[in-house]
Amino acid sequence: MTVIERFLKYVAFDTQSDESTGVTPSTEKQMVFARYLKTELEDLGLKDITLDDNGYLFATLPSNVNRPIPVVGFIAHMDTSPDMSGENVRPRIVEKYDGTDIVLSAEDNIVLSPADFPELLDHKGEDLIVTDGRTLLGADDKAGIAEIVGAMAYLIAHPEIEHGDIRIGFNPDEEIGLGAHKFDVEKFGAKWAYTMDGGEVGELEFENFNAASAVVEVRGRNVHPGYAKNKMINSLLVANEFVALLPENEIPARTEGYEGFFHLTGMKGDVENTILTYIVRDHDREKFEDRKKLMMENAEILNGKYGQGTVTVTLKDQYYNMRQQVEPLMHIIDLAFAAMQEAGVEPKVKAIRGGTDGAQLSFKGLPCPNIFAGGLNFHGRYEFVPVQSIEKAMKVVVKIAELTARRYR
Question: What is the three-class DSSP state of 196?
Answer without folding.
Answer: strand
